[in-house]
Design brief:
By secondary structure, this protein is an alpha+beta fold. It has 13 helices and 10 strands. The strands form 2 sheets. It has a 5-stranded antiparallel sheet with strand order 1-5-4-3-2, sandwiched between helices. It has a 5-stranded mixed sheet with strand order 7-8-6-9-10, sandwiched between helices. A hairpin with a 2-residue loop joins β4 and β5. α11 packs across α12. It starts with 6 loop residues before the first helix and ends with a helix.
Length: about 375
């Protein structure tokens, strides 16, 4: 059957003259200014298949397809069609053109085919100035995307094999490590969005997650992510970056969580070189500081420090980072660094003497933490 063989049956059903014409995008946009857009299946895409305009007392036009700057436009002259009939034509065009029946391919599984459809939609929203944050119905009907899942974003440092082989291999590894019930969505060439089940947060007896337990949800997610990174780095990818978010419903939060995890990895790579696991709840200060223009960072550091190079001395840098990671606890920091408590106090006193900042005081500790983060980024740039 040719691309236009369906026109005659449709014309017979509607008992109305139908034409399929080629219009440029510019022509369509001119028509839109003169007519009303009555139906638009995808609010994020003005030229989505099925989009309908009605020219007063003239005809109804539907977008039936697009090739670069040219549109296939279905023009129906009869104005007696009901609104429901027009909606049905629009919806049929949208579903048929946007989601054509998949060609049999023994090399692509059903899960990968579905993942590619999700990827296409997600990429469109991420590239849009006004993204739609909820998945369209045809991508969620009958799926598990209405239930909370755990999102991970994986970015690799090296090119893998072919896309199909990479998907199959990665999906197999994820299912063996996390669960059979995972969803893998390819994004860019070396970027993958992974959805894991909430069961990952349960103990061996499959008891529901209890927020009152000593280990917080964030701690559990960090532990899962660490194990996943270790497995991926050793079994498949080598160097890679991995971020995890709090559980969310994919049907409503897929776009936002992807944006968040992308930002998280970018911030982690920028402020903490050498770190491969990135947690959004640990990068809140970095997110704020990243909005400060570079010229202001340099000016602030110049005004704040009497001796900036002290902060990049390996011994002092290791001391401060350990001190902050242990919530400014002097005894625990000394133990972690395998030094005497008095040695640690000497280093902190030296910092106070040369910079005027005493990290044992809350206000100064905050300032030093900010200075360390800004200095690492400003100096590297």
């Amino acid at each position: 059957m040719s691309k236009t063989d369906w026109l005659m049956p449709l014309q017979h059903i509607l008992n109305s003259p139908i034409q399929l014409k080629t219009r440029t995008v510019q022509e369509w946009e001119t028509f839109v200014q003169e007519a009303d857009v009555k139906w638009q299946p995808d609010k994020s895409e003005a030229l989505a298949p099925g989009t309908r305009i009605e020219k007063a007392e003239s005809s109804t036009w539907f977008i039936a397809g697009r090739q670069k700057q040219e549109l296939s436009v279905l023009e129906i002259a009869d104005t007696s069609l009901t609104t429901k009939e027009k909606d049905l034509i629009s919806w049929t065009l949208y579903m048929t053109v946007r989601n054509p029946p998949a060609k049999p391919n023994a090399n692509i599984s059903d899960s990968e085919r579905f993942a590619e459809r999700l990827s296409e939609w997600l990429q469109q929203q991420l590239d849009s100035d006004e993204p739609a944050y909820s998945l369209p119905d045809h991508l969620t009907v009958g799926s598990r995307l209405y239930y909370d899942m755990i999102p991970f974003l994986l970015i690799t440092e090296q090119t893998t094999t072919t896309k199909a082989a990479a998907y199959t291999e990665l999906e197999k590894l994820l299912k063996s490590f996390l669960s059979e019930d995972i969803l893998l969505i390819p994004l860019k060439s070396q970027e993958w969005l992974i959805w894991g089940p909430m069961a990952l947060l349960r103990d061996e007896d499959a008891e529901p997650y209890d927020a009152t337990e000593e280990e917080s949800m964030e701690d559990s997610l960090a532990s899962i992510t660490s194990g996943l990174h270790e497995m991926l780095a050793s079994e498949w990818l080598g160097e890679c970056h991995l971020a995890v978010g709090l559980p969310v419903t994919p049907s409503k939060g897929m776009v936002e969580v992807t944006m968040l995890l992308r930002e998280t990895i970018n911030l982690g790579r920028k402020f903490h070189v050498g770190t491969n696991i990135h947690l959004p709840w640990m990068l809140q200060l970095e997110r704020l500081l990243n909005t400060i223009p570079e010229s202001y960072r340099a000016k602030y550091l110049e005004q704040s420090l009497k001796r900036a190079d002290l902060f990049v001395e390996p011994e002092m840098l290791a001391t401060l980072e350990t001190f902050f990671s242990l919530d400014c606890n002097v005894s625990e920091t000394a133990k972690r660094l395998y030094i005497h408590r008095n040695t640690l106090l000497y280093r902190l006193d030296k910092l106070k003497q040369e910079t005027g900042l005493d990290v044992r005081q809350f206000r100064d500790a905050v300032l030093v933490k900010i200075i360390l983060l800004l200095y690492k980024v400003t100096k590297r740039n």
